[in-house]
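Quality-control log, excerpt.
Job 1 of 2 completed; input and output follow.
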Amino acid sequence: MFFSQPVRYEHLGFGDLVAPSTMAKMASIIKESSRNYMVRELASSIVENGPEKDQRFEVESIFRWFKNRYRYVKDPHGTEMLQSPLVAIQKWSNNKIWSGDCDDATIVLLSLYKSIGYPVAIRAASYRPDGKLTHVYGLVSIYNIWIPIDGIKINGQVGWEAPKITKTKDVKV
C-alpha cells in the first residue's frame, strides 16, 4: 500500500514525549513500507547476485548500496519530518542522491531489511549526561544477533555504534 503522503509532518510531542512518539511513528512506517512491492523489489535487487541465505552478505550489501546514495541533512528547523522509503526510491529512480536525517535513514534501511525477512528494531540513544535521547539508528538481527545499523556515519560500517552511549531505548518493529 502506498502512503497518501510519503513525507509526514506531524506534531509528535514535547520533551520526553518526543522520542517515544517519534519511534512509534517510525515503527508504523517501517511495518507498512516493508510490505510495499517497490521496497521489497529494491531490497531483492540489491542482494540478488550474492549467495543465498548469507545474512551477513545481504545486510552489508544493502548498507553499502544505501551509503552510496544518501546524504545526511537536518530536518527543517522546529519540525520533525519522517520520510517513507518511497521518497528515497523516487529520488534513486532518477539517479539522484536522497537526503534525510537519522530517523529517515533508519526508516529506509530497516524497511529494506524487514521487506526481505530480517527482524529489525529502532534504537534511540543518548550521549549526554542527562540521558536525553538525541540520535536514532537501526538494529537488524543476523544469525540471531542484534547488529547496529547507523546510516548517517560517513565512514560507518555494519555493526558500528558511536562510543560513550549513556542511555538507549529499543523498540522492536
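Job 2 of 2 completed; input and output follow.
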Amino acid sequence: MIQLTVSVGKQDHIWGSAKAPVTLLEYGDYECPYCGAAYYVIKRIQEELEKDRMRFAFRNFPLAQSHPNALRAAIAAEAAGLQKKFWKMHDELFENQNALETEDFKKYAKKLDLNMTKFLKDSSDEKIQQRIQQDLMGGVRSGVSGTPTFYINGVRYDGLGEYKDLMFALEAEYSKMLGRNYL
C-alpha cells in the first residue's frame, strides 16, 4: 500500500466539502491523453456524488519530457487560480487538449473573463513555478511515476481509471468511513 506523503489541505485546489469523508486526489498532466480521459470520468463522478460525500483535489504533475505544453498549461491553470478560476481553467485545458499553446491560454483567459494584465504577469511569477515544483516533488515522494495517479484518502489507487472501477472504490471507501461493509 503506497501512501501519500503530503496530505490534501489548504494548499490544494479542492472541489467539494472539506468535511467530506472521502478525498480523491489526482496527480495530472493537462497534455496527457490518459488524464484527458480521466477528466471525463471524474466529471461524471462529481455529478453523481454529493460534495459532502467526496472532495476532489488536483495536483500538477507535468511530464514535460513527453508533453512539451504540459508545464505551460499548469502555469495557466495556476495563474487563473490566483483569480479564483482554477477549476474553470482546469476544465478548459482538459476540454481543449489539442490546443495548448500560449495563444490558446490567452484565449481561454479572455473567455473566463480574467484580468489579462494580472494573468500574464502571474504566468511568469516564480511563485507559480515553485508551487508546480512542490506538487511534482510531493508526487515523486508519494510514488507517482506517471499520470494520472490517484489517491483515495491518502492511499494510492492502483485500479482501473474506468468509471465503474473508480466509483466502486470511492463508494467502498465511503462505506468504510461510515463504518459499514460495502459489497
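Post-run check on job 2. The domain at 13-177 is CATH 3.40.30.10 (Glutaredoxin).
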